[in-house]
Design brief:
alpha+beta, Molybdenum Cofactor Biosythetic Enzyme, Chain A, Molybdopterin biosynthesis moea protein, domain 2, Molybdopterin biosynthesis moeA protein, domain 3, 4 domains, six-stranded mixed beta sheet
């Protein structure tokens, strides 16, 4: 960190803290139907109005019994119970289970009153009409046979003991009425949609989708409508489409500001258009290095301020953050990998914070590298990697990782082949195969 300071480069973690401290969560919210709530951020605590589940139900196909009736049951010394009835999902028993009695139940069926455990059908032998035990499980499991209220077996032999509560999903074990199920500041993922649906919610109060302007700068960019061969010296714009996709992924609304040449007037006009379009933040790519044609810094300083300039990071050292006419602005590098990596590390947490999300930290896990790694940049490096879990002979599970291949900041395919970033501190110049590293998992929410 001291070396980074000597070179005027801000450490990545410090930059993230600074950025998050400088952006303000939106105070604008709206009533959103549940089917459209995915990706939004709650502005209310949602409490359970009822117990979930609302009744005790069977977790297995089997028989609802009194655990005391089958205490000590074994294959060699089974316990015989008479069968009093059957209950399927959506049904209720018309009377309690009596002593020495069992009721056939299917998965999801309410537990009849009086029963306190379920014996899986695999632990039961049918009793023939003449009272003889068989080696067969009762028929009909996996689908009813005959009328729903018919009982084919009059008695069963239970071949194993169970404890009270076995294979019963208890009333309220998921949510208790009156308790907070999902807290304000939580991003709604598919799991949250399911929880809200289980509580009977048809809509929620959530923040509006914030608007993020995205601009590409550079004299070398051809128009996006060009489908033929590239003119000499020109390239296609990958940054804006990729960054807008990331903004969309993070629940915000991307506003396409197009692409402009390295001209101060054109860049300023695009930024003004973003401000007039009520953007909550602006992202530009390119034009933040120290070259004669890198104009973004000068434009921003003319109508605002730059508070962060140059990060101790590879890829992505030329990064700028500040404000333009009161709107937060992120100046990302022009190299496509650098733009995407700096977005993941520094912009994505801010986009989530602006939307009101409380947990915005990076999720990181320890791992073992499968190959030797070299960091000769003098900066903190985030390599693109492929991570997988590994089970050793003792059953211990660990993360293993390898780089995607060449790590140049112009090798965009290294991002599409990666599912993580391998974090190497500036002071770490090499890691041998089998050595310990830290993985950053972009896009994985931090829930704590």
């Amino acid at each position: 960190m001291a070396d980074a300071a000597r070179h005027g480069r801000m450490p990545v973690d410090e930059a993230r803290v600074r950025v998050l401290g400088a952006v303000t969560p939106t105070d604008s919210h709206e009533k959103v139907p549940l089917p459209r709530a995915l990706g939004r951020v709650l502005v209310e605590d949602v409490a359970a109005s009822v117990d979930v589940p609302p009744f005790d139900y069977s977790a297995m196909d089997g028989y609802a019994v009194r655990a005391a009736d089958v205490a000590g049951a074994t294959k060699g010394s089974p316990v015989r119970l008479r069968v009093g009835g059957r209950v399927g999902a959506g049904m209720v028993a018309d009377r309690p289970v009596g002593t020495g009695e069992a009721w056939r139940v299917l998965t999801g069926a309410p537990i009849p009153p009086g029963a306190d455990a379920v014996v899986p059908f695999e632990w039961v032998r049918a009793v023939s009409p003449n009272g003889q035990a068989t080696s067969e499980v009762p028929s009909g499991f996996g689908g009813w046979t005959g009328a729903i209220d018919e009982v084919e077996e009059l008695a069963i032999d239970v071949t194993a003991a169970v404890d009270a509560g076995d294979d019963i999903r208890a009333r309220g074990e998921d949510q208790r009425a009156g308790t907070v199920a999902i807290r304000a500041g939580t991003r709604i993922r598919p799991a949250e949609v399911a929880v809200l649906a289980s509580l009977g919610r048809r809509w929620v109060w959530a923040t509006r989708r914030v608007r993020i302007g995205v601009l590409s700068t550079g004299d070398e960019l051809v128009g996006r409508d060009l489908t033929g061969p590239l003119p000499p010296g020109l390239i296609r714009d990958a940054n804006a489409p990729g960054l807008m996709a990331m903004v969309e992924r993070d629940g915000a609304e991307p506003m396409d500001l197009g692409q402009v040449p390295d001209q101060a007037t054109a860049i300023r006009d695009a930024f003004i258009f973003a401000v007039q379009g009520a953007c909550d933040a602006i992202i530009s790519s390119g034009g933040v290095s120290m070259g004669d044609r890198d104009m973004v810094r000068h434009v921003v300083q003319g109508d605002g301020e730059i508070t962060i300039w140059s990060i101790d990071l590879r890829p992505g050292k030329p990064f700028a953050f500040g404000s333009f006419r009161g709107v937060p602005i992120f100046g990302l590098p022009g190299n496509p990998v650098s733009a995407l990596v700096t977005y993941e590390l520094l912009v994505a947490p801010a986009v989530r914070r602006i939307q009101g999300e409380v947990a915005t930290g990076l999720v990181e896990v320890p791992a073992v590298t499968e190959v030797a790694l070299v960091n000769d940049s003098g900066r903190e490096q985030f390599m693109r990697g492929v991570a997988r879990t590994f089970h050793d002979a003792g059953g211990v599970v660990s993360w293993h990782v390898r780089p995607t291949g060449p790590q140049g900041s112009g090798i965009l395919s290294s991002m599409s082949r990666a599912n993580c970033l391998i974090r190497l501190p500036a002071t770490t110049t090499s890691v041998p195969a089998g050595g310990a590293v830290t993985l950053s998992l972009p896009g994985v929410p931090s829930l704590w």
